[in-house]
Design brief:
Layout: H1 5-10, E1 18-21, E2 25-29, E3 37-43, H2 58-74, E4 82-84, E5 100-104
Bound molecules: guanosine-5'-monophosphate and zinc ion (ZN).
Zinc ion (ZN) binds near residues 4, 6, 7 and 46.
Length: about 110
């Protein structure tokens, strides 16, 4: 996707502070952190949102989800963390490339507001 900001980060056309990378996923720090640690984990494959996932993404998404706890460890989130996915208009998704937010190093109040 040529106009997708997260695809551009994955292709190193836009700089980001990379936390973790393998052939399927990329994790980088959010540019506008909402907690002392705020990272974004994306599949390198462009999938617009949770709603756009399909059966062929089953293995990929298993890989993405299982990476979260590994990445959390490297970010020092031994005391816990929050994982968030915003989907669509009511979810207030801003960037239309599927991503998980990984937030921590403070107590994450609920509800978020
Ligand atoms: P969403 O609202 O789509 O779930 O979250 C998008 C997130 O991407 C926001 O937290 C925003 O701060 C972050 N973001 C937007 N543009 C950039 C960028 O160019 N670089 C980085 N690192 N994060 C970005
Ligand atoms: Zn994309």
């Amino acid at each position: 996707m040529s106009d997708c900001i997260f695809c551009k980060i994955a292709e190193r056309e836009i700089p980001a502070k990379i936390v973790y990378e393998d052939d399927k996923v990329l994790c980088f720090h959010d540019i506008n952190p909402q907690a002392p640690v705020h990272a974004l984990l994306i599949p390198k494959k462009h999938v617009a949102s949770m709603d756009d996932l399909n059966d062929e993404d089953r293995e990929l998404m298993g890989h993405v989800v299982l990476k979260i706890k590994e990445i959390a460890k490297t970010l020092g989130l031994e005391n816990g963390y929050r994982v968030v996915n915003n989907c669509g208009e009511d979810g207030m998704q801003e960037v239309k490339h599927f991503h998980f937010h990984i937030l921590g190093k403070r107590q994450m109040l609920w509800p978020p507001g």
